[in-house]
Sequence to fold (224 residues):
Amino acid sequence: DTEVTQTPKHLVMGMTNKKSLKCEQHMGHRAMYWYKQKAKKPPELMFVYSYEKLSINESVPSRFSPECPNSSLLNLHLHALQPEDSALYLCASSLYGLNSPLHFGNGTRLTVT
Amino acid sequence: KQEVTQIPAALSVPEGENLVLNCSFTDSAIYNLQWFRQDPGKGLTSLLLIQSSQREQTSGRLNASLDKSSGRSTLYIAASQPGDSATYLCAADQAGTALIFGKGTTLSVSS
Fold:
């Protein structure tokens, strides 16, 4: 079992919908990450939060909006997505940053219709 | 910009064999290098983290080495088992800010 919990496991949404992905960890980690993974491809970094502040945005389109309400919770708000945004969205956390191992959740499988 | 390459892309071996997975990276100014395992449709499991000052790390049947100067890392798996079948991903950091992943090596161990 992973110590990083992502909900929902699967999500199907239309291009006009608004939905949110949720990620939670209770390991006291202060860095949290969103990655996007397409089939047969490696994970690609989207956002990094460090001590609840956004530290990296890898030029992600504004239809993806991250939020870190507290040190244990990370959300990804989705709006007006395109079919090509369909992918596995992975959340990860680490103790302080990249000097400690990343712990990944099992991901949310997103399908945009 | 950091680029990570993994060879081979796929590998099939019979149970019991020792094997080596290769990873190379272009920017040697890394803080650390990490190896992960990913099962189909699942998230990633951290296997080993090697700090830039270290040469190798071991965990059970796994041994990872790091040669910063040549931009290479290897993951050695001893006495492979069918349960080792998965995709193995290598990741190097970019200026200590983000992990950049290779495309992975898909390993199949037959019984």
Q: What stands out?
A: The mean pLDDT of chain B is 94. The interface with chain A takes residues 31-32, 34, 36, 41-46, 49, 51, 89, 93, 96-104 of chain B (CB under 8 Å).
